[in-house]
Amino acid sequence: MRLPAGGQGLVVQKYGGTSVASAELIRSVAQRICRAQADGRQVVAVVSAMGDTTDRLLALAREVSDRPNPRELDLLQSTGETVAVTLVAMAIEALGTPAISLTGGQAGIRTSALHGRARIEGVDTRRLHRELDAGNVVVVAGFQGVTEEMDVTTFGRGGSNITAVALAAALKAALVENYTDVEGIYTADPRLEPRARRLRDISYQEMMELATWGAQVMHPRAVELAALYNVPVLVASSFSEAPGTLIHSEVTMEDVNRLRGIAADASIAKITVLGVPDRPGIAAALFEPLAAAGISVDVIVQNASVERVTDLTFTVARGDLATSLETVRPVAKGMGALDVISDATVAKVSAVGTGMQNAPGYAARMFRALAAASINIEMITTSEIRITCIVAESQLKQAVRVLHEVFDLESEASSP
Q: Which residue has the higher pLDDT, 100 or 277?
């Protein structure tokens, strides 16, 4: 469902790292941007670092320090996007279209001071409007901004999506075109389930659940911003002219009342606090220090109390496991808990769809299918449009394929 390319207006295009991984690909991206400009639209292009640049920079940082300073790490990582935007701007100008590259700070993106997880507090659009009015394509470094003290911050993995949607909202752009290495949003990760089907469109609410629970094409915060400011987002491939998937407020009538997709996430870890005294304030005492450390807690399960003692289990991002354990262990010891144990070999699989709100049977089918495949469910959490199970990481691919089949997601219809 690609929207019409022609006509006046402003569009924000975002290009992921795989789209600009080489000089040849950068020239291809430049050609796509120039075509949009030639169609009479003003273009802001948000660009990620080339290929695996960010991974290489992080590896280099770990070679010189076991615990790199978060401020210096943000400044280091931001250089990847800075290199990419300058090369894209050069390639655009080589095609005869005026362009200018800007860092996040130069583009007016102001953020909180939480390094590695900064949140956008505002966008000063004066420089952007000035460059657009001068006829330039504006190429902005994704994933980054600056604090009031002009320190560089980053938004975390997938942060260029956040940049693109935030700029579109601030500039009142008609659309965000998110170009990546896949042709849209699929009913499951095609790497796990080859029969996964591309969706023509999907609602903000469904995309939020998919992104939060494992789909990596869009950052959850980017979807949240898009929904808040009603910015439609087209997810499409930079390597083909496939129509892509439109994320917007309303899906087509025939796509209503069905399960839309299976999300999978193998980047989590489980922490269990054993023998916790069951008294008021214990949960707050455990989770407040984690929040203060900038760690998001995911699934939480507390066992029924036996003789006023219980076990409390929760999940965190696997990259946060070491910091989480360092934070939780002294708190648990202080409250008299017996022990703190962890497991970094778990994963989560989720079934998502607005059709689950009013139709019974989805949970029963999901649990029955996993049981028939001998996949043990360790934890369960739900929302109105999602059911999530924590399973062994070694069984994640099997779980995705089993659920994709049992809900018949390969076809154009699915029901309980």
A: 100
Which domains, ranges and CATH numbers included, belong to the chain? 9-181 (3.40.1160.10)
HEC string of the chain? CCCCCCCCEEEEEEECHHHHCCHHHHHHHHHHHHHHHHCCEEEEEEECCCCCHHHHHHHHHHHHCCCCCHHHHHHHHHHHHHHHHHHHHHHHHHCCCCEEEECCCCCCEEECCCCCCCCEEEECCHHHHHHHHCCCEEEEECCEEECCCCCEEECCCCHHHHHHHHHHHHHCCCEEEEEECCCCCECCCCCCCCCCCECCEEEHHHHHHHHHCCCCCCCHHHHHHHHHCCCCEEEEECCCCCCCEEEECCCCHHHCCCCCEEEEECCEEEEEEEEEECCCCHHHHHHHHHHHCCCCCCCEEECCCECCEEEEEEEEEHHHHHHHHHHHHHHHHHCCCCEEEEECCEEEEEEECHHHCCCCCHHHHHHHHHHHCCCCCCEEEEECCEEEEEEEHHHHHHHHHHHHHHCCCCCCCCCC
- If you average pLDDT over residues 280-290, what whole number do you get? 88
pLDDT digits (tens, 9 = 90+) for 337-356: 999 999 999 999 999 988 77
Distance CA 375, CA 398 (A): 8
Closest CA to 112 of 55, 156, 79: 156
Q: What is the pLDDT of residues 50-94, one digit of tens each?
A: 999 999 999 999 999 988 999 999 999 999 999 999 999 999 999
Rounded distance between C-alpha atoms, residue 233 and residue 247, angstroms: 5
Residue 253 has pLDDT above 70, yes or no: no
Q: How confident is the model at residue 5 (pLDDT cuts 50, 70, 90)?
A: very low
- pLDDT exceeds cutoff 80 at 415: no
Residue with tokens 């990582």: 77
pLDDT at res. 68: 92
